[in-house]
Amino acid sequence: MKTLLVVLAILLIFGTGCIMDEKVIEIVVSSSTCVEFSENEDSETFSTVAVVDYAGEIDEILEDHGLDRSDIKEAYVVEASYEVTDFAHDHDWHISGQIDVARTDEPAGPALLIDYTDQSVEDALGTAIAASLNSEGVELLNNALDDYIAGASPVISFEVVNGDVEPDPSSSDRLVFTWQACVTLHIIVVETIEVPDPF
What we know:
Blueprint lengths: L2 E6 L11 E22 L4 E7 L1 H11 L7 E16 L6 E10 L4 E13 L8 E3 L3 H15 L6 E11 L8 E22 L3
Antiparallel strand pairs: 1-2, 2-9, 3-8, 4-7, 4-9, 5-6, 5-8
C-alpha cells in the first residue's frame, strides 16, 4: 500500500516565555487501495471478481499515520489506474471492457467505475494506466466512505466485465495475465496544535 502524508501546517517556533495559541489544521492523507485480478480465459467475454474490506483498508491507512476514524472530516476518491503485473505470452492481446463496483455489506450497485477500450495487455505491463472515472462508481465509493466515517464497515466488490479480446482467445491459446486496479483516496483529518501567538 502506497501512502503519502501531506501536512498543511505552520512551522512551530518555540521560545522562552512565548504565549501559545491553538490552531486547527487539516491533514490530507493520500493513499491507494489496489485489487488484483488473475485471468486465464479461453473466451473474449469473461468476468472476474475481487472483494476488498474497504473499512479494513482505511483502518490500516489511519493506523499507519497515528490517526483514528473519529479524526476524519471527509474522504473521497480522486483518481484510479490499472496495471498488468504478470504477462508472458509470445504475442500481445487487446482487451475492451469495464470494471464495476458494488457493496456486499448492503445492497448498492453494481456501478461502472472504469472502462478500458482496445487496451494492449503488453503495453500495460509494469505501467500504471490512468483511468477515466465514471461518476456512478465514484458516487458508490464515496458513499461507502461517508458510511465508514459514520461507523459502518463497508465491503466493496470489484468486477472485471470484459467484452472483447483481439485476437480471440481459445482453449489452445488462452489469455493469461495478472493485473490490478488501484483507487486513490484523499482522507481529510483535523488536528489542533499550539503555535506561538505573535501578538
